[in-house]
Design a protein that fits this description.
It is a single chain. By secondary structure, the chain is α/β, with parallel strands linked by helices. It has one domain: 3-Layer(aba) Sandwich (Rossmann fold), CATH 3.40.50. About 35% of the residues lie in helices and about 15% in strands. Helix 1 links the parallel strand 3 and strand 4. The protein starts with a strand and ends with a helix.
Length: about 180
């Protein structure tokens, strides 16, 4: 099964282990053709990027890790990020080079406007699963879980915060 990973904000595919993926935070050029795969794995804002582009792939499998479920304003998202950085810490070696930050900020600005609930309606409920770090109190928080439940979106919780860790990696591997 061909799997493509779309990393979380300001991270590169190489941070996620042995996955093929698309480094959306490094390339300011929009995708001419969305790459085809059997399963799309998106972490955080990477999930929103997939949702923007997945119209013709609604029959594929999707695994979203700590996605941007609830709509947020720029100030609200900024506060959530600050709380996340204070809560989990910043792993500077995982962050993309400063030379890519302007592109990253523009992309985040676009992706926080994605209406998760409307976008996931294009995907068969049986083809989507959300993995949530039960200690993610910042981005995919308890209010996001309520939205997932209301929309009958299947999710599992693992021992993690917002950032990718071994428990998330194991859950993704088990689902593939």
């Amino acid at each position: 099964m061909k799997t493509l990973l779309f990393p979380g904000a300001f991270q590169a595919v190489k941070n996620y282990g042995n996955y093929e993926g698309v480094d959306i935070w490094l390339n300011p050029t929009p995708l001419e053709k969305f790459p085809s795969a059997d399963c799309y794995v998106g972490h955080s804002a990477g999930s929103a990027f997939i949702l923007v582009h997945c119209d013709s792939f609604a029959d594929r499998r999707f695994i979203f890790i700590n996605p941007l479920v609830k709509k947020r304003s720029v100030p609200s998202m900024s506060r959530a990020w600050i709380r996340y950085f204070l809560g989990e810490g910043i792993r500077w070696k995982r962050i993309i080079s400063v030379s890519h930050w302007l592109h990253g900020l523009k992309l985040v600005r676009q992706l926080i406007d994605v209406d998760f609930q409307s976008a996931v309606e294009k995907i068969s409920k049986g083809n989507l699963i959300v993995i949530r770090g039960k200690n993610d109190h910042w981005i995919c928080d308890e209010a996001s879980v309520d939205i997932l439940k209301e929309n009958k979106i299947h999710y599992i919780e693992v021992d993690a915060g917002h950032d990718w860790n071994e428990n998330i990696a194991q859950a993704v591997k088990a689902l593939l």
